[in-house]
UniProtKB/TrEMBL annotation:
GO molecular function ontology, one term from the record: carbohydrate binding
Matches recorded under InterPro entries: Peripla_BP_I, SBP_2_dom
Name by which UniProt lists this protein: Ribose transport system substrate-binding protein
Family: Belongs to the bacterial solute-binding protein 2 family.
CDD domains: PBP1_ABC_sugar_binding-like (cd20007)
Lineage: Bacteria, Bacillati, Actinomycetota, Actinomycetes, Pseudonocardiales
Periplasmic binding protein domain mapped to chain residues: 31-286
Xref: Pfam families: Peripla_BP_4
Domain of life: Bacteria
Subcellular locations according to the entry: Cell envelope
Length: 316
């Protein structure tokens, strides 16, 4: 089952059934399909999208897959049926596997807007709104290099799933930036299937195999939560620097406690808001910006309070 909420209603369950007198005008229906349900990054994105849709007099319906999984997300895309909403805002869970289902919705008349992740094929979407993920990875490496100083050592990257455009770009940005920090040696990139448990065991294994491990870059909130668990279990909190991506409540708590030494926060609400704006522009025949980049913010314990507006939400 998927989590489904309609703009303004705040409820979970089927919405938008026929015969409703409060039905929005034809052409004013938007659908949002995030990467996964009940996760602070996508909840914050949904909040931004809902607020913007409401302001513009559009209905926005959100359905999210239970897991960050292309097969589950495909089911939701296919369920939009032969008469889809005017525009689909989607975070494709796989840059390749989601091409055919999204292409089909487009063929059926919906405008496609990518939010957060993107397809490899850039001809499908009208617009893409995302963080500069390569830059985010680079920023993480620079933050880590500063923390480690001149001490030589190895650094591990925890990616999610091969085919996730965002985290794959973060891992590459990080690894490429290591060339500018010769004291830091790559201990490789590990995939975790976006499962905190897998991230935790990869950290346990790396601590055993790589005695000079000085840092870990966790490319999203699930890998970060798992990495923090792995370090805690080994009694290595603080001894190995952990740089996380995102700013979920548990990551922010972890930064306060010293489990993380840095976080690279995205602005998911802005991604959702701009996604809706571009969808409406496309539907109303106004100029559309093909690529929009949301801001990133590097946060350390010292700058936590000044950055509280970037902390992710659990509900709107
Ligand atoms: O980091 C975000 C998102 O940008 C990424 O595409 C998938 O993971 C998150 O949702 C965080 O869990």
């Amino acid at each position: 089952a998927a989590l489904l909420t309609a703009c303004g209603s705040g409820t979970v369950g089927q919405t938008g059934s026929g015969g409703d007198s409060a039905k929005p005008a034809a052409g004013k229906k938007l659908a949002l399909i995030p990467g996964v349900q009940a996760e602070p990054f996508y909840i914050s994105m949904q909040c931004g999208a809902e607020a913007e849709a409401k302001k513009a007099g559009y209905e926005l319906t959100t359905q999210a897959p239970q897991k960050f999984d292309a097969a589950m997300q495909t089911q939701l895309v296919n369920a939009l049926g032969s008469n889809p909403p005017s525009a689909l805002l989607i975070a494709p869970t796989d840059a390749q596997a989601m091409l055919a289902p999204i292409q089909q919705v487009k063929t059926r008349g919906a405008k496609i807007i990518e939010v957060d992740t993107a397809l490899k094929d850039t001809s499908v979407a009208e617009a893409s709104i995302s963080s500069d993920n390569t830059e985010g990875g680079k920023l993480a490496a620079q933050t880590l290099a500063k923390l480690v100083g001149d001490k030589p050592g190895s650094v591990l990257v925890l990616d999610t799933i091969a085919g996730t455009s965002t985290t794959n770009a973060r891992a590459k940005g990080f690894t490429d930036e290591l060339a500018n920090h010769p004291n830091l040696k790559s201990a490789g990139v590990q995939f975790t299937q976006n499962e905190p448990d897998q991230a935790a065991s990869k950290v346990t294994a790396a601590l055993a195999s790589t005695p000079d491990l000085v840092g870990i870059f966790a490319t999203n909130l699930n890998t970060g939560e798992g990495a923090a668990t792995g370090l805690r279990n080994a009694g290595k909190v603080g001894a190995v620097n952990l740089i996380g991506f995102d700013a979920s409540p548990s990551e922010v708590e972890g930064l306060k406690k010293g489990e993380y030494q840095g976080l690279i926060a995205q602005d998911p609400a802005a991604i959702g808001q701009q996604g809706v704006q571009q969808a409406i522009a496309a539907l109303e025949g106004k100029p559309v910006t093909r690529t929009l980049t949301a801001q990133l913010h590097s946060i350390t314990k010292d700058t936590l309070d000044a950055n509280s507006q970037y902390f992710y939400k659990q509900k709107c």
